[in-house]
1,2-phenylacetyl-CoA epoxidase subunit PaaA
Amino acid sequence: MPSSASSSPGDTAAAPPQEPALQAHFDRTIARDQRVEPRDWMPEGYRRTLIRQIAQHAHSEIIGMQPEGAWITRAPSLRRKAILFAKVQDEAGHGLYLYSAAETLGADRDDLTDRLIEGRQKYSSIFNYPTPTFADVGVIGWFVDGAAICNQVPLCRSSYGPYARAMVRVCKEESFHQRQGYELLRTMMAGTQAQRDMVQDAVDRWWWPSLMMFGPPDDDSPNSAQSMAWRIKRHSNDELRQKFVDMTVPQAEKLGVTLPDPELKWNEERGHHDFGTPDFSELMRVIKGDGPCNAERMARRRTAHEEGAWVREAAAAHAAKQARRTAERARGEEKEHAA
Ligand SMILES: [Fe+2]
Ligand SMILES: [Fe+2]
Protein backbone atom coordinates (compact mmCIF):
# COMPACT_ATOMS: atom_id res chain seq x y z
CA MET A 1 0.00 0.00 0.00
CA PRO A 2 1.50 3.39 -0.88
CA SER A 3 1.70 5.77 2.03
CA SER A 4 -0.47 8.25 0.10
CA ALA A 5 -3.40 6.04 1.03
CA SER A 6 -3.42 7.36 4.58
CA SER A 7 -5.27 10.57 5.28
CA SER A 8 -5.96 13.04 8.02
CA PRO A 9 -9.58 13.33 9.19
CA GLY A 10 -10.01 16.68 7.40
CA ASP A 11 -9.17 15.26 3.98
CA THR A 12 -12.49 13.78 3.07
CA ALA A 13 -14.61 16.63 4.40
CA ALA A 14 -12.68 19.19 2.34
CA ALA A 15 -12.63 16.93 -0.77
CA PRO A 16 -8.98 17.71 -1.55
CA PRO A 17 -7.65 17.55 -5.10
CA GLN A 18 -5.90 14.22 -4.55
CA GLU A 19 -9.18 12.43 -3.78
CA PRO A 20 -9.73 10.95 -7.29
CA ALA A 21 -6.32 9.30 -7.06
CA LEU A 22 -7.15 7.94 -3.62
CA GLN A 23 -10.52 6.72 -4.83
CA ALA A 24 -8.84 5.00 -7.79
CA HIS A 25 -6.39 3.33 -5.44
CA PHE A 26 -9.26 2.18 -3.20
CA ASP A 27 -11.18 0.83 -6.21
CA ARG A 28 -8.11 -1.09 -7.37
CA THR A 29 -7.66 -2.58 -3.90
CA ILE A 30 -11.25 -3.85 -3.96
CA ALA A 31 -11.04 -5.08 -7.56
CA ARG A 32 -7.87 -7.03 -6.81
CA ASP A 33 -9.49 -8.58 -3.77
CA GLN A 34 -6.90 -7.05 -1.46
CA ARG A 35 -7.67 -5.80 2.04
CA VAL A 36 -8.42 -2.23 3.03
CA GLU A 37 -6.55 -1.43 6.26
CA PRO A 38 -7.33 1.17 8.96
CA ARG A 39 -4.84 3.81 7.77
CA ASP A 40 -5.85 3.55 4.12
CA TRP A 41 -8.04 6.18 2.56
CA MET A 42 -11.60 4.94 2.11
CA PRO A 43 -14.84 6.55 0.93
CA GLU A 44 -16.97 7.91 3.77
CA GLY A 45 -19.88 5.67 2.74
CA TYR A 46 -17.67 2.59 3.05
CA ARG A 47 -16.51 3.67 6.51
CA ARG A 48 -20.04 4.46 7.68
CA THR A 49 -21.46 1.20 6.31
CA LEU A 50 -18.74 -0.81 8.02
CA ILE A 51 -19.14 0.98 11.35
CA ARG A 52 -22.89 0.36 11.24
CA GLN A 53 -22.52 -3.30 10.27
CA ILE A 54 -19.71 -4.10 12.70
CA ALA A 55 -21.45 -2.26 15.56
CA GLN A 56 -24.70 -4.12 14.89
CA HIS A 57 -22.75 -7.36 14.81
CA ALA A 58 -21.00 -6.50 18.10
CA HIS A 59 -24.30 -5.56 19.77
CA SER A 60 -25.81 -8.87 18.60
CA GLU A 61 -23.00 -10.86 20.20
CA ILE A 62 -23.43 -9.04 23.51
CA ILE A 63 -27.24 -9.13 23.61
CA GLY A 64 -27.00 -12.72 22.34
CA MET A 65 -25.45 -13.73 25.67
CA GLN A 66 -28.80 -13.20 27.41
CA PRO A 67 -31.22 -15.84 26.07
CA GLU A 68 -28.82 -18.69 26.85
CA GLY A 69 -27.08 -17.04 29.78
CA ALA A 70 -30.38 -17.39 31.60
CA TRP A 71 -29.79 -21.18 31.62
CA ILE A 72 -26.29 -21.22 33.12
CA THR A 73 -27.53 -21.51 36.70
CA ARG A 74 -30.16 -24.08 35.70
CA ALA A 75 -28.10 -26.34 33.40
CA PRO A 76 -28.95 -29.98 34.12
CA SER A 77 -25.37 -31.17 34.76
CA LEU A 78 -21.91 -29.85 35.52
CA ARG A 79 -20.81 -30.80 31.99
CA ARG A 80 -23.66 -28.84 30.39
CA LYS A 81 -22.98 -25.90 32.67
CA ALA A 82 -19.28 -25.82 31.73
CA ILE A 83 -20.10 -26.01 28.00
CA LEU A 84 -22.73 -23.29 28.21
CA PHE A 85 -20.47 -21.07 30.29
CA ALA A 86 -17.70 -21.38 27.68
CA LYS A 87 -20.14 -20.66 24.85
CA VAL A 88 -21.66 -17.56 26.42
CA GLN A 89 -18.19 -16.30 27.33
CA ASP A 90 -17.11 -16.76 23.70
CA GLU A 91 -19.97 -14.50 22.62
CA ALA A 92 -18.68 -11.78 24.95
CA GLY A 93 -15.27 -12.19 23.32
CA HIS A 94 -16.82 -11.84 19.85
CA GLY A 95 -18.48 -8.62 20.92
CA LEU A 96 -15.15 -7.26 22.16
CA TYR A 97 -13.22 -8.15 18.96
CA LEU A 98 -15.92 -6.46 16.95
CA TYR A 99 -16.04 -3.28 19.04
CA SER A 100 -12.25 -3.13 18.60
CA ALA A 101 -12.63 -3.58 14.83
CA ALA A 102 -15.13 -0.70 14.79
CA GLU A 103 -12.65 1.44 16.74
CA THR A 104 -10.07 1.00 13.95
CA LEU A 105 -12.54 2.93 11.76
CA GLY A 106 -12.62 5.85 14.19
CA ALA A 107 -15.77 4.81 16.09
CA ASP A 108 -15.86 5.29 19.84
CA ARG A 109 -16.92 2.28 21.89
CA ASP A 110 -18.74 4.32 24.55
CA ASP A 111 -20.67 6.04 21.81
CA LEU A 112 -21.61 2.70 20.21
CA THR A 113 -22.79 1.39 23.57
CA ASP A 114 -24.89 4.54 24.07
CA ARG A 115 -26.42 4.05 20.63
CA LEU A 116 -27.42 0.51 21.53
CA ILE A 117 -28.81 1.44 24.93
CA GLU A 118 -30.77 4.38 23.53
CA GLY A 119 -32.18 2.15 20.77
CA ARG A 120 -30.47 4.13 17.98
CA GLN A 121 -28.56 1.07 16.75
CA LYS A 122 -30.00 -2.40 16.23
CA TYR A 123 -28.98 -5.94 17.05
CA SER A 124 -30.09 -9.22 15.48
CA SER A 125 -33.84 -9.77 15.78
CA ILE A 126 -33.30 -13.42 16.78
CA PHE A 127 -32.27 -12.56 20.34
CA ASN A 128 -35.71 -11.14 21.09
CA TYR A 129 -37.25 -14.61 21.35
CA PRO A 130 -37.61 -16.41 24.70
CA THR A 131 -35.84 -19.56 25.90
CA PRO A 132 -38.45 -21.37 28.04
CA THR A 133 -36.79 -24.83 28.02
CA PHE A 134 -33.28 -26.28 27.98
CA ALA A 135 -33.92 -27.61 24.47
CA ASP A 136 -33.77 -23.94 23.39
CA VAL A 137 -30.07 -23.94 24.28
CA GLY A 138 -29.55 -26.83 21.87
CA VAL A 139 -31.65 -25.35 19.10
CA ILE A 140 -29.98 -21.94 19.40
CA GLY A 141 -26.59 -23.63 18.98
CA TRP A 142 -27.80 -25.65 16.02
CA PHE A 143 -29.89 -23.00 14.18
CA VAL A 144 -28.71 -19.60 15.38
CA ASP A 145 -25.00 -20.35 15.53
CA GLY A 146 -25.44 -22.38 12.31
CA ALA A 147 -26.97 -19.35 10.59
CA ALA A 148 -24.20 -17.18 12.07
CA ILE A 149 -21.64 -19.51 10.46
CA CYS A 150 -23.33 -19.17 7.03
CA ASN A 151 -23.27 -15.40 7.43
CA GLN A 152 -19.79 -15.10 8.89
CA VAL A 153 -17.64 -17.56 6.94
CA PRO A 154 -17.81 -15.34 3.82
CA LEU A 155 -16.98 -12.33 6.04
CA CYS A 156 -13.53 -13.89 6.63
CA ARG A 157 -12.88 -12.63 3.07
CA SER A 158 -14.50 -9.25 3.66
CA SER A 159 -12.59 -6.34 2.12
CA TYR A 160 -11.91 -4.63 5.46
CA GLY A 161 -8.85 -6.28 7.03
CA PRO A 162 -9.58 -6.01 10.77
CA TYR A 163 -13.16 -7.26 10.30
CA ALA A 164 -12.08 -10.17 8.10
CA ARG A 165 -9.36 -11.23 10.55
CA ALA A 166 -11.66 -11.03 13.57
CA MET A 167 -14.08 -13.33 11.73
CA VAL A 168 -11.51 -16.10 11.37
CA ARG A 169 -11.37 -16.75 15.08
CA VAL A 170 -15.04 -16.00 15.62
CA CYS A 171 -16.00 -18.65 13.03
CA LYS A 172 -13.88 -21.31 14.71
CA GLU A 173 -15.73 -20.64 17.95
CA GLU A 174 -19.13 -20.54 16.22
CA SER A 175 -18.39 -24.00 14.88
CA PHE A 176 -17.95 -25.25 18.47
CA HIS A 177 -21.22 -23.51 19.38
CA GLN A 178 -23.12 -25.25 16.64
CA ARG A 179 -21.69 -28.65 17.51
CA GLN A 180 -22.42 -28.35 21.21
CA GLY A 181 -26.04 -27.46 20.34
CA TYR A 182 -26.44 -30.39 17.98
CA GLU A 183 -24.80 -32.80 20.42
CA LEU A 184 -27.13 -31.61 23.20
CA LEU A 185 -30.14 -32.22 20.94
CA ARG A 186 -28.93 -35.70 19.99
CA THR A 187 -28.64 -36.54 23.66
CA MET A 188 -32.17 -35.30 24.32
CA MET A 189 -33.54 -37.17 21.28
CA ALA A 190 -32.07 -40.38 22.71
CA GLY A 191 -33.85 -39.68 26.01
CA THR A 192 -37.52 -39.80 27.02
CA GLN A 193 -40.55 -38.92 24.91
CA ALA A 194 -40.95 -35.75 26.97
CA GLN A 195 -37.41 -34.71 26.00
CA ARG A 196 -38.04 -35.46 22.32
CA ASP A 197 -41.23 -33.38 22.45
CA MET A 198 -39.28 -30.56 24.05
CA VAL A 199 -36.76 -30.61 21.18
CA GLN A 200 -39.50 -30.63 18.52
CA ASP A 201 -41.27 -27.75 20.24
CA ALA A 202 -38.07 -25.69 20.29
CA VAL A 203 -37.42 -26.51 16.60
CA ASP A 204 -40.96 -25.34 15.76
CA ARG A 205 -40.44 -22.02 17.56
CA TRP A 206 -36.94 -21.22 16.26
CA TRP A 207 -37.08 -22.33 12.62
CA TRP A 208 -38.77 -19.28 11.07
CA PRO A 209 -37.03 -16.64 13.22
CA SER A 210 -33.71 -18.32 12.26
CA LEU A 211 -34.52 -17.98 8.54
CA MET A 212 -35.27 -14.30 9.19
CA MET A 213 -31.73 -13.82 10.53
CA PHE A 214 -30.53 -13.50 6.93
CA GLY A 215 -32.53 -10.31 6.54
CA PRO A 216 -35.24 -9.30 4.08
CA PRO A 217 -35.47 -10.86 0.59
CA ASP A 218 -32.91 -9.58 -1.93
CA ASP A 219 -35.34 -7.39 -3.88
CA ASP A 220 -36.27 -5.67 -0.62
CA SER A 221 -32.73 -5.15 0.70
CA PRO A 222 -31.59 -1.76 -0.63
CA ASN A 223 -28.11 -1.63 0.96
CA SER A 224 -27.02 -5.10 -0.10
CA ALA A 225 -25.89 -4.26 -3.64
CA GLN A 226 -23.51 -1.53 -2.47
CA SER A 227 -22.12 -3.77 0.29
CA MET A 228 -21.48 -6.47 -2.29
CA ALA A 229 -19.84 -4.01 -4.69
CA TRP A 230 -17.51 -3.00 -1.85
CA ARG A 231 -16.96 -6.69 -1.10
CA ILE A 232 -17.93 -6.19 2.51
CA LYS A 233 -20.61 -8.80 1.81
CA ARG A 234 -19.96 -11.72 -0.52
CA HIS A 235 -23.39 -13.33 -0.90
CA SER A 236 -26.93 -12.00 -0.97
CA ASN A 237 -29.43 -12.60 1.85
CA ASP A 238 -31.38 -15.14 -0.21
CA GLU A 239 -28.25 -17.05 -1.21
CA LEU A 240 -27.20 -17.37 2.42
CA ARG A 241 -30.71 -18.38 3.49
CA GLN A 242 -30.70 -21.13 0.84
CA LYS A 243 -27.31 -22.33 2.00
CA PHE A 244 -28.56 -22.56 5.59
CA VAL A 245 -31.67 -24.53 4.57
CA ASP A 246 -29.64 -26.96 2.43
CA MET A 247 -27.17 -27.48 5.26
CA THR A 248 -29.84 -27.95 7.96
CA VAL A 249 -32.35 -30.30 6.28
CA PRO A 250 -30.13 -33.44 6.37
CA GLN A 251 -29.13 -32.62 9.95
CA ALA A 252 -32.82 -32.48 10.93
CA GLU A 253 -33.43 -35.86 9.27
CA LYS A 254 -30.53 -37.39 11.15
CA LEU A 255 -31.75 -35.92 14.40
CA GLY A 256 -35.30 -37.16 13.84
CA VAL A 257 -37.12 -33.82 14.04
CA THR A 258 -39.52 -32.21 11.56
CA LEU A 259 -38.84 -28.72 10.25
CA PRO A 260 -42.18 -26.83 10.43
CA ASP A 261 -42.50 -25.98 6.74
CA PRO A 262 -44.96 -27.95 4.53
CA GLU A 263 -43.37 -26.43 1.41
CA LEU A 264 -39.92 -27.78 2.22
CA LYS A 265 -38.76 -30.28 -0.41
CA TRP A 266 -35.73 -31.13 -2.53
CA ASN A 267 -35.77 -29.60 -6.00
CA GLU A 268 -33.77 -31.86 -8.30
CA GLU A 269 -33.61 -29.28 -11.07
CA ARG A 270 -32.23 -26.48 -8.91
CA GLY A 271 -30.08 -28.79 -6.82
CA HIS A 272 -31.45 -27.01 -3.73
CA HIS A 273 -34.35 -27.31 -1.32
CA ASP A 274 -37.48 -25.30 -2.01
CA PHE A 275 -38.95 -23.76 1.11
CA GLY A 276 -41.72 -21.44 2.30
CA THR A 277 -41.43 -17.69 2.78
CA PRO A 278 -40.80 -16.46 6.33
CA ASP A 279 -43.23 -13.86 7.65
CA PHE A 280 -41.09 -10.81 7.00
CA SER A 281 -43.67 -8.50 8.58
CA GLU A 282 -42.81 -10.27 11.86
CA LEU A 283 -39.12 -9.55 11.21
CA MET A 284 -39.88 -5.85 10.74
CA ARG A 285 -42.02 -5.78 13.87
CA VAL A 286 -39.32 -7.41 15.99
CA ILE A 287 -36.58 -5.16 14.57
CA LYS A 288 -38.71 -2.11 15.41
CA GLY A 289 -38.87 -3.24 19.04
CA ASP A 290 -42.09 -5.24 19.24
CA GLY A 291 -40.73 -8.76 19.70
CA PRO A 292 -41.52 -10.98 22.69
CA CYS A 293 -38.36 -10.02 24.64
CA ASN A 294 -37.09 -6.67 23.22
CA ALA A 295 -37.93 -4.69 26.35
CA GLU A 296 -36.45 -7.31 28.66
CA ARG A 297 -33.20 -7.57 26.67
CA MET A 298 -32.71 -3.79 26.59
CA ALA A 299 -33.55 -3.35 30.27
CA ARG A 300 -31.03 -6.04 31.18
CA ARG A 301 -28.33 -4.48 28.99
CA ARG A 302 -28.97 -1.04 30.51
CA THR A 303 -28.77 -2.37 34.05
CA ALA A 304 -25.56 -4.27 33.26
CA HIS A 305 -24.06 -1.07 31.85
CA GLU A 306 -25.00 0.96 34.92
CA GLU A 307 -23.81 -1.72 37.32
CA GLY A 308 -20.52 -1.96 35.43
CA ALA A 309 -19.74 1.76 35.76
CA TRP A 310 -17.46 1.21 38.78
CA VAL A 311 -15.45 -1.40 36.83
CA ARG A 312 -14.87 1.03 33.97
CA GLU A 313 -13.90 3.79 36.42
CA ALA A 314 -11.52 1.46 38.30
CA ALA A 315 -9.94 0.27 35.03
CA ALA A 316 -9.43 3.85 33.87
CA ALA A 317 -7.89 4.83 37.24
CA HIS A 318 -5.60 1.78 37.10
CA ALA A 319 -4.49 2.60 33.55
CA ALA A 320 -3.77 6.21 34.56
CA LYS A 321 -1.72 5.02 37.54
CA GLN A 322 0.28 2.61 35.36
CA ALA A 323 0.94 5.36 32.81
CA ARG A 324 2.12 7.69 35.61
CA ARG A 325 4.48 5.04 36.99
CA THR A 326 5.89 4.24 33.55
CA ALA A 327 6.53 7.96 32.96
CA GLU A 328 8.19 8.31 36.41
CA ARG A 329 10.40 5.30 35.74
CA ALA A 330 11.40 6.69 32.35
CA ARG A 331 12.30 10.03 33.97
CA GLY A 332 14.36 8.21 36.63
CA GLU A 333 16.26 6.24 34.00
CA GLU A 334 16.91 9.42 32.04
CA LYS A 335 18.39 11.10 35.14
CA GLU A 336 20.56 8.06 35.87
CA HIS A 337 21.75 8.09 32.29
CA ALA A 338 22.60 11.79 32.49
CA ALA A 339 24.52 11.25 35.73
FE1 LIG B 1 -20.72 -15.24 18.32
FE1 LIG C 1 -22.04 -18.32 18.79
Summary: The longest strand covers residues 265-267. The longest helix spans residues 309-338. Residues 1-12 have pLDDT under 50 and may be disordered. The beta strands are 265-267, 272-274.
